[in-house]
Specification:
30 strands; 47 helices; seven-stranded parallel β-sheet; globular; 13% strand; alpha/beta
């Protein structure tokens, strides 16, 4: 039985005749619809379209791969039903060459296929972002030096505008402007248009700036009228106050009405004059017996109106004449900034072309050059190119920008064969220059789908992801908050989620949407507030895990586990670790989704330090980091001794002197270090790093510590970053070290590895951005009270692609600084866009939940916050759009949405709040955590000194370190150093000229071990001497070493029953390296610290999943028991370490005595 499609899904699948825009809500099955549309068009027997005549574009490689595989899977399914169908077989072949790709890879392929026409190199490539960032800085520095030399008046004036101390602020604003305009198809044309705005003499009300500010004031006046009417209503509770205060309140309302009329008239100077004349009548004296609560609430409401009117005056700071004067004064500055940015743009382009590199935007511009003329019309190339595609399907269309949109319009027969899919409510990438207005404009221009008129708009609103309690919770929030002005979407019937998911019923469970209120003390810092919220979150998760809260998997209920939970954060920086620590206290594992911190990870910092000292051995700090690392395992005492014994010398020089004196550890280090330095002179960077890993076993060493998969992935990622650097034209070690220094000095970082974590027991903690496209049974949206980040709006320059550039007026000679009207308009518009993005981010976060959604609200003054929220709601419990746009955090929006809910009745009664009660969805109010309940938690994190703490500090002055013994415990030992601690005692052997053939017994043993490591056992059985000759030929042995081997003893081993067993084994591991850790007391030291041990097993067999350890011994003994006694401890450590390799265990340990020519079973090894 085929899948059941909704009517809207069928419309999207079957629509033919023109371009279609599909607005696909969260969980609405848009990928399935895309695949089905492709399949039906490909397999349409009357009007089939070959698979390679579609262009399918997504925004991630994973999405493109998934799309291709889904289409292939459906075709394979059809082929299984009709295996002889030649048409389907042909389509399977065509699918292999179909363009199903990311937007960047599509532009890249177009450029590479047409490099001659474009006049670029066929080997043009996308460079690493950090490398490009460094190049940008260098080009900008050179450009400014040139400009300083020219001493042009406008340039000097521009420099003075941004400050005479240095030009850092000028550089920052230029780079910001450069990044902003690179999302536009014609950036130079845009700058010319913006400059014309500054040269215009049109009245302010006729400009986009003026209309923006007048609209804002008009909306604000309407809000003030609502607040003033509520203030008058409050007075009705006290007749005396009503009589005393009503005249002033009515006067306020009258003036607000006059101001509203001026706004409707649309005359700037009229609004400006009305604001100048606006005055608040002084209140009459209140009766002595008046209600203080009523008086307090009235004053609070009137003060709100006063503050808003004060804000209106700031938004309209001057009349039309002063506006034009400011414009005229700033036009030269704008012209100078645009001119300088254009020169930088061209210089950087030239430098990138010289180096044969670019970024993704460069490939987009080169594609645009092919398909569009200067007016944005398709070229002849575009018309020819578009003929190869029957239809172009764009996924995640809400994340496109103007540049990308124009390219696709030009290659789609002027926009006639586009199938666009996205969800404006999930447009969350403005920081990457995505422009939601592109989607919004088409949505408003396209006709509702009727099967006849095109281009058409179709809405998919049925959600197949979440339980109904979750979708109703989402709707309850956004029906009140999301509007055309805030969120860029009117959240109406067309946009609201309709539950289409089917889940098994679970009687007795609370509602699926829950609100967690936490009331903290006002004096708490942000970090302490977070700690409190994190602990409460961890407690809730722990309780759900212990209670076995049911979740659904494959249609069947099961108890929840850690991997079912995700904690979503707006920003993970300095936050995710707090929640992870709280979960750890609760006994719950957590996985962080961090993408930064690469250079500070232990394994990478060691490698970076090693690369630095290979380039320059005289650097003591990185040398110390290398010596103390697990790679070489020097102790702090050993390092200190180098400084004491060799004062004034570098660590490297000290190690050379110690090596000359025969100190084993220094000698071993110098030998390895010099080998690596030699290789660094002849190897390219990537090969050098791989050689370091192979020589030092560093990956294996670091994998023995906590988080082995992450550590291994980070070290392997260093190989990729080295390769990327080499691709930039330089593979030198010194250049790479310098490059890393540059990144670290500028606060930049590589992205950390993100290995797949298969442990289903770990709670995931990630940002909302990283959760996009994912879903989880239980979602906790945490830290909702974090203030929105508006730092970018606080500079002297603000910019927007729609409203252009806004500058503050700055005259440093006259010490003048104020906000100009263009600055205020652009800032206000950008703030509106920022809040719209935050609204959409909250939507994305909430729609990740499948079965349970928890929203955390942690406030320091919850009572005041709720009373402010009460004011923002109208008589029906709906929030005023102006108030919604003034929200400082997600908490403000969530409280506005849920305050009228019956679940918060107790909270409203406690704080004396009166709003019209509404229940548009079932929600659970988790037991509110009040301030008095947090005293214990606050005490735990208090930083205030007390007598006990002072006493403890006094004790610390005379503190004696209790773990002094641990300071002499080595970080790493070999198995031999543990089992034979006296092995480092100096043993003098007879000189080689007195030994047979010049080899000592120990050396002969090493040679025999090497033979057994590299010999071909089967070939050796046939011809032992021949195998020795082969090993000599391959340089595993020297001729002298070959002649020292006892061939008869070798034949005896090769023909033994043990060799039969070796040859029958499922797997044979020779010279198998391993790492493990043991307690210090097990290694002959005092204390309980862990010591890393390293060993090499001669031979390990895999027999049906069980391990057999074989140790070859050349000791000259007459009694096998001597060998057992001598090596039982060593084999015990081998068995312990290798249990991780063989889950079924180690079934046997065997010593093979070369001298006795027999095997010895070691039965006592535990």
């Amino acid at each position: 039985m085929g899948r059941m499609w909704t009517e809207d899904q069928l419309h999207a699948i079957e629509a033919r005749g023109g371009s279609v825009l599909v607005s696909a809500a969260a969980g609405s099955g848009k990928t399935a619809v895309l695949v089905e549309r492709l399949i039906r068009r490909i397999t349409d027997r009357e009007n089939p379209v070959d698979a390679d005549r579609f262009l399918v574009v997504t925004f991630t490689k994973a999405a493109a791969a998934e799309m291709r595989e889904r289409v292939a899977a459906r075709l394979r399914e059809l082929l299984r039903e009709n295996p002889a169908d030649g048409f389907l077989q042909h389509q399977m072949l065509l699918l292999e060459r179909a363009q199903i790709c990311t937007i960047d890879s599509f532009f890249g392929s177009v450029v590479r296929e047409n490099f001659e026409q474009l006049g670029v190199s066929p080997s043009l490539r996308v460079a690493d972002e950090t490398l490009l960032g460094r190049l940008r800085d260098e080009v900008l520095e050179d450009l400014l030096e040139q400009q300083y030399g020219l001493k042009e008046e406008n340039f000097i004036r521009l420099v003075r505008y941004f400050g005479e101390e240095n030009d850092n602020r000028l550089k920052a604003e230029m780079l910001k402007l450069y990044d902003k305009i690179r999302s536009l198809p014609f950036p130079f044309q845009w700058m010319e248009e913006q400059l014309i705005r500054y040269q215009s003499v049109a009245p302010v009300e006729e400009t986009a700036w003026g209309r923006q500010l007048m609209q804002k004031v008009s909306q604000g006046v309407n809000y003030c009228q609502q607040v003033a009417k509520r203030a008058l209503f409050v007075l009705e509770a006290d007749e005396g106050l009503l009589s005393a205060y009503a005249p002033a309140c009515l006067s306020d309302l009258g003036q607000l009405e006059k101001l509203s009329g001026a706004c409707e008239a649309g005359q700037w100077d009229g609004i400006y004059e009305a604001l100048k004349e606006f005055s608040f009548t002084k209140l009459s004296r209140a009766p002595k017996d008046s209600d203080p609560t009523v008086k307090e609430r009235f004053n609070a409401l009137r003060d709100m109106v006063k503050e808003e009117v004060k804000g209106f005056r700031k938004l309209l700071p001057c009349g039309n004449a002063d506006y034009l004067a400011d414009l005229q004064a700033q036009a030269p500055l704008v012209e100078a900034l645009f001119d300088l940015t254009k020169k930088f743009y061209q210089a950087l382009d030239a430098e990138k072309q010289e180096l044969n590199i670019g970024d993704f935007n460069d490939f987009a511009y080169l594609t645009l050059q092919l398909v569009s003329d200067e007016d944005g019309n398709p070229t002849s190339f575009a018309e020819e190119f578009s003929a190869q595609f029957e239809e172009i399907l764009l996924d995640e269309y809400q994340d496109t920008n103007r540049l990308q949109d124009l390219i696709f319009r030009c290659i789609s027969r002027n926009g006639e064969n586009l199938f666009l899919v996205g969800d404006l409510k999930q447009s969350i990438y403005r920081f990457r220059n995505a422009d939601p207005a592109v989607f919004m404009e088409k949505k408003e221009a396209f006709s509702p789908y009727d099967g006849v008129h095109y281009p058409a708009f179709i809405s998919l609103s049925k959600n197949f992801r979440s339980r109904e309690g979750v979708t109703s919770g989402v709707n309850a929030v956004f029906e009140k908050l999301m509007t055309r002005e805030l969120g860029n979407v009117t959240y109406n019937e067309q946009e609201r989620l309709n539950c289409g998911a089917i889940y098994p019923d679970v009687p007795g469970l609370p509602p699926e949407t829950a609100l967690q209120l936490i009331h903290v003390n006002k004096e708490e810092t942000d970090e302490h507030r977070l700690v409190i919220e994190a602990r409460e979150t961890a407690r809730q998760i722990g309780k759900m895990l212990r209670d076995g809260m049911p979740v659904t998997e494959n249609g069947v209920l099961r108890p929840c586990r850690g991997g079912d939970f995700v904690i979503l954060l707006r920003s993970a920086r300095d936050t995710d670790a707090i929640f992870a620590a709280a979960l750890k206290e609760e006994g719950v594992d957590a996985v962080l989704g961090a993408s930064s911190g690469y250079f500070t990870s232990r394994e990478v910092s060691v490698m970076v330090s090693l690369l630095k000292v290979l380039d320059n051995p005289m650097l003591d700090i990185p040398m110390a980091a290398v010596l103390l690392s697990p790679m070489f395992s020097f102790s702090c005492d050993e390092l200190g001794a180098l400084f004491v014994y060799h004062p004034g010398k570098s660590l490297y020089a000290s190690l050379l002197l110690e090596a000359d004196r025969g100190r084993r550890k220094a000698r071993d280090f110098i030998r390895t270090f010099h080998l690596l330095r030699e290789k660094s002179a002849v190897m390219n960077l990537q090969k050098l790093i791989q050689y370091i890993y192979d020589t030092t076993d560093f990956i294996e060493v670091m994998s023995s510590f906590a988080g082995p998969s992450e550590r291994e992935a980070n070290l392997k990622l260093l190989l990729k970053y080295a390769l990327d650097f080499e691709a930039g034209g330089s593979g030198e070690l010194s250049g790479f070290v310098s490059y890393i220094d540059y990144l670290m000095e500028n606060g930049k970082d590589f992205e950390v590895a993100n290995p797949v974590n298969e442990a289903a027991q770990s709670v995931r903690i990630m940002t909302i951005h990283k959760s996009k496209g994912l879903e989880f049974p239980v979602v906790i949206v945490a830290n909702c009270s974090k203030k929105h980040n508006v730092m970018d709006l606080n500079g002297d320059v603000v910019m927007d692609t729609e409203l252009g550039l806004g500058l503050k007026f700055i005259d440093r000679d006259k010490l003048l600084r104020y906000d100009t009207m263009p600055y205020l308009a652009v800032k206000n518009y950008e703030q509106q866009n920022l809040l719209s993005e935050e609204m959409r981010l909250l939507y994305v976060a909430m729609t990740r939940a499948k079965e349970k959604l928890i929203l955390n609200v942690t406030e320091e003054a919850l009572d005041k916050k709720l009373r402010k929220t009460e004011t923002d709601l109208d008589g029906e419990g709906n929030i005023h759009p102006y108030a919604a746009a003034k929200a400082l955090s997600y908490s403000d929006w969530l409280l506005a949405a849920f305050l009228p809910h019956p679940a918060l009745r107790g909270i409203r009664e406690k704080y004396g709040i009166s709003v019209a009660e509404q229940e548009n969805c079932p929600i659970e109010l988790l037991s509110p955590v009040e301030r008095e309940e947090l005293e214990v938690a606050l005490d735990e994190i208090s930083v205030k000194p007390d007598p006990e703490m002072l006493e403890k500090l006094r004790e610390r002055i005379y503190y004696s370190y209790p773990h002094r013994l641990d300071t002499v415990i080595p970080a790493k030992l070999s198995v031999t150093e543990i089992t034979h601690p006296d092995s480092e005692n100096v043993r003098l052997s007879a000189p080689q000229f007195l030994s047979e053939q010049g080899f000592t017994p120990a050396q002969k043993g090493s040679i025999f071990h090497r033979v057994l490591q590299f010999i071909d056992f089967e070939a050796g059985r046939q011809n032992a001497q021949g195998e020795l000759d082969r090993l000599t030929e391959r340089r595993y042995l020297t001729p002298t070493e070959r002649d020292a081997v006892d061939v008869q003893k070798l034949r005896t081993f090769l023909e033994s029953p043990l060799m039969d067993r070796i040859l029958k084994a499922d797997r044979v591991l020779r010279e198998y390296k391993f790492f493990d850790s043991v307690a210090a007391d097990e290694a002959g030291y005092e204390g309980s610290s862990q010591i890393l041990i390293q060993g090499i097993a001669d031979c390990v067999l895999d027999e049906n999943g069980k391990g057999v350890i074989i140790d070859f011994k050349t000791d000259v003994v007459s009694d096998p028991a001597v060998l057992v006694e001598r090596y039982a401890g060593q084999l015990s450590l081998y068995r312990r370490a290798l249990r991780r390799v063989f889950p079924k265990g180690i079934q046997e340990c065997i010593i093979y005595s070369v001298h006795l020519e027999r095997q010895i079973i070691v039965k006592s090894v535990k």
